[in-house]
Amino acid sequence: MKQEENKILHHSKEDSHEVNHTAKLNWLRAAVLGADDGIVSIAGLVVGVAGASNQQGVILAAGLAGIIAGAISMAAGEYISVSSSRDTEKVLLEKERYEIAHFPEAELEELACIYEKKGLSKETAMKVANELSAKDAARAHFDAELGIDPDNLTDPWHAAFASAAAFTIGAIIPLFAIILPPTSLKVPITFFSVLAALFLTGILSAKISGANVWKATLRVVIGGAFAMVVTYSIGRFFGIKGV
Question: Where are the domains of the chain?
Fold first, then answer.
C-alpha cells in the first residue's frame, strides 16, 4: 500500500512538472509567433509603401504607425483571449468549491475514482483522497480534476504586454532594413533581412512544437516572401515616385 501511495505522489509530481513545462513552451511559442507576425506584417507594409514612394519620411511614418497599431491590436487580442480563459477557470473553481461544500461525499468518491484510474487500488485511492481532502479538499480537486492552480492563473496584462513586445521586436527588423540602406538597396536588403529572420523564427517555432523543421520553416519563409511580393507589386502599381 505504501508503494502505491508513493506511486500517486510520483505521478502528481510528474503531472505538475509537465504542466509547468507545457506552460513555458506555450509562452515561448506565442512569443515566436508574435515576433513572426510583426516581421511579416510590417515587412509587407513598408515594402508596399516603398513600392509606391521613395520618400524616407513616408516609409518611416507608415512603419511606425504599423508597429504601434499592430502592437496595440496584438495586446488587445491577447488580453481579451486570456481574460476569457481566466474567467472560465474562475467559474470552474467556484463551481468546484460549491460542490465540495454541498456534496462532500460525492466529491470524495469522485476524487478517489480519479486516483483509482491512475493505477491505485480502490482502498488506497480512497485513503489518498481522504488524506488530501483533510488537508485541503478544494486544492486536491483543483489539481486532480481541473488541472488548475488557483494561485497561478494566467495574468491577462502580462500576456498582453508579452504579445505586444514580441510583435514590436519582430517588426523592428523590417523597419530598420528599409530605413537604413540607400534608396536603391532598400527593398532588396529588406527582402533578404526579412527572409533570414523568418528562416530563424521558423526553425525555432518548429523546434518548440516538434514539427518537421524544413517544412515548417519553408511555409513561414514562403508566406513572408509572398506577402512582400504582393504588397510591393501593389505599391508599384498605384505609386507615384517622388511623392
Answer: 2-238
Long-range contacts of range 85-88, CB-CB < 8 Å, 24 or more positions apart?
85/154, 86/153, 86/154, 86/156
Q: What is the pLDDT of residue 206?
A: 81
Contacts of 166 (CB under 8 A, 6+ apart): 30, 31, 32, 33, 34, 35, 38, 74
C-alpha triplet 108, 109, 112: angle, nearest 5°: 85
pLDDT at 242: 47
CB atoms within 10 A of CB 75: 22
Task: Provide the pLDDT for residue 133.
Answer: 81
* Dihedral sign (CA 43, 45, 50, 56): negative
Q: Which residues of 100-133 are buried (b: 16+ CB within 10 A; e: fewer)?
A: beeeeeebbebbbbbbbebebeeebbbbbbeebb
> In this model, does residue 29 exceed pLDDT 80?
no
pTM: 0.74
pLDDT one-digit tens code per residue, 123-172: 888 888 888 888 888 888 888 778 887 877 878 888 889 889 999 999 99
Contact call for residues 174 and 39 (beta carbons, < 8 A)? yes
And the C-alpha cell for 62?
507608415
* pLDDT 10s digits, 67-101: 999 999 999 998 998 899 889 888 888 998 888 88
The torsion angle over the Cα atoms of residues 47, 48, 49 and 55, rounded to 10 degrees, is 50
Retrieve residue 155's grid coordinates. 495574468
- Give the whole-angstrom CA distance, residue 223 versus residue 203: 15
DSSP state for residue 241 in the 8-state scheme: T
